[in-house]
Amino acid sequence: MTTLKLAIGSILVGFAVLGLKAAAYWITGSVALLSDALESTVNVATAFAALIAIRIAAKPADADHPFGHHKAEFFSAVIEGVMIIVAALLIFREAFQGFLDPVPLDAPVEGLAVNMVATVLNGVWAWVLITGGRRRKSPALVADGKHLVSDVLTSVGVAVGIVLAVVTGWWVLDPLMAAVVAVNILWSGWKIVKDSVGGLMDEAVSEQTLTDIRKTIAAEAGGAMEAHDLRTRHAGVATFIDFHLVVPGDTTVFQAHEICDRIEAALKELLDDAKVTIHVEPEHKLKHAGVIVPD
Asked: Model's pTM, two decimal places?
């Protein structure tokens, strides 16, 4: 399934889950279930945001955006994190009202059954989005999937609260559980915003990926002497890599170009959408640091 189809699927699943959760609230009158439905409205809104971001990110580079539009997905993830936080604040508001006036629930068993159907649907789709998003290096899809995971946790917590309220008769447990779950949602939103801001700030690749890049350069740079000033950053599906490659003084332009082509091809095999820039330097620019090419 393509990235675009996954984004469209999120919208359809979001509407289905929202309808089920709204029905569960209508059946029971539960504050916690209302809070759960409120979060699902955010799911639908953020699914639309992810779809728009993915379409923009897929556009090729142009005169105004010579490095492409990859970062559009990070903007979507930031918006999604902010909306998750807003949803948590709305849940806190509903929970507070429930604390002031706790009421018995109508048909809790039927309401929970409907809500659990929505929870299972959300859980399955969250797994699809996270695995598919990571495979395609799509921050928007991964963020959407993590948001759904928080939604699943919300629904489980809500179910526990309602069951305890029914068993004990302490109806205040209904809004209490809504407040507890809202704290978890706040934390989830913060993590999504933090990760996305890292991408917008040209955060480097992970240490493991950087090690793999160094090993690839060393293995494919035969004929050169060293590679230094290696820099990396990621933007959506793209990974930007640039470094200086020192070659012996008697290396021809053709030979240097062949070495660079070999390194670039290997890096693109390592990272599907690698954007590689290599600055060739003569022997006197040696720093005896960075990636030392074996003889």
From this structure: 0.58
